[in-house]
Amino acid sequence: MTTPSLDPTDNGPLEAALRHLGTTPDPAVRDEHIAVALGHIASTETNEPSNVVSLASRRPNRVFMALSAVAAVGLFALGLGLGNRDSNSPAEVSLVKNAAPTETVNSRACVNTEVSTTDTFLIAGSPPALVAKEVRNGVPTLTVYNAITCDILWQVPAK
Amino acid sequence: METERLLERAQSGDVSAVDQLLRVHYGAVHSVCHRMLLSRESADDAVQNALIAIVKGLPRFDGKAALSTWIYRIATNSAIDEIRRVRRHGGTVPLNDTASAHTLASEHAVDPTALLAEHLVDSSRVAQALGTLPEEFRAVVVLRYISDLDYADIAAVLEVPVGTVRSRLARGKKLLAEKLADPTTLSPPDEPNLGTPSSPPTDSSS
Predict the structure, then answer these.
(1) pTM of the entire structure?
(2) Any chain A CB within 8 A of the CB of B188?
């Protein structure tokens, strides 16, 4: 079977056919989509970070995994430090377990969860955990998610 | 300048500005989602999710990338999310162009080189073949030829090196050509084709 030649100039017949695949939106559907999206302005949580992407579309790369290991060790050390601290001393960092936010995060919402791409770490484990540096209610927060269910496991104020 | 002012107003929560901004970029989001997904319903879901993500993300858009790049990134990710969601749930994916797909499936194989050379490539058939590519290749082909982005912009949208864009584009087009050359690889309308479950592409240039 002959494979069609691929025009090195990027202007071959296949490319031309692809360029003719533009779509024409239905104005009624467009208006409906926009109206629904605008309805989310009021519910927008204004402290989410910028540079957002969907978690579901991210796949960990080598750097990610390396940082994961560092993050895992850091969290482990943090946990040890808190556990050994004198109970009478004032808490500088509070470790809150199962501190769910007001909104329930379900698995569908997880797909649309948006976090910073630059301050996110995936920790391989069972279950795998995702560590995201976020700003919640004006407070920089390190949040640890169950990477499968997107339940929030821990939240600690980040310095 | 006008765009910057519109963006500023939109970021400050001006609903009419957000509305206007979404209308300006709706076509881009629509074309990416509708060419990344075979099913019109799934594509519409992806468009809707992308618009919501844009609205939610706007106040924190930091301008490090161009607004259009950021929007294309959201649209592409939304389409990829939808592809994976449909695949996970094993849902049926009716084809957009069912009539032509049926015709195509029953056609005799014709020398694809001759077809292409004579500019007789059926666009619906190309759309169907495109919808069966692994999403990594599909995204690059859609952004290059349908959204008309240059390599650098595609690299920015997908957050991959330009070399990776080039290699994915070349491999995507090769796969497309092979699918177009063999009508049996395209599904008839009653057999949903969710695309090939993609393994991470092995990019030689990254």
Answers:
(1) 0.56
(2) no
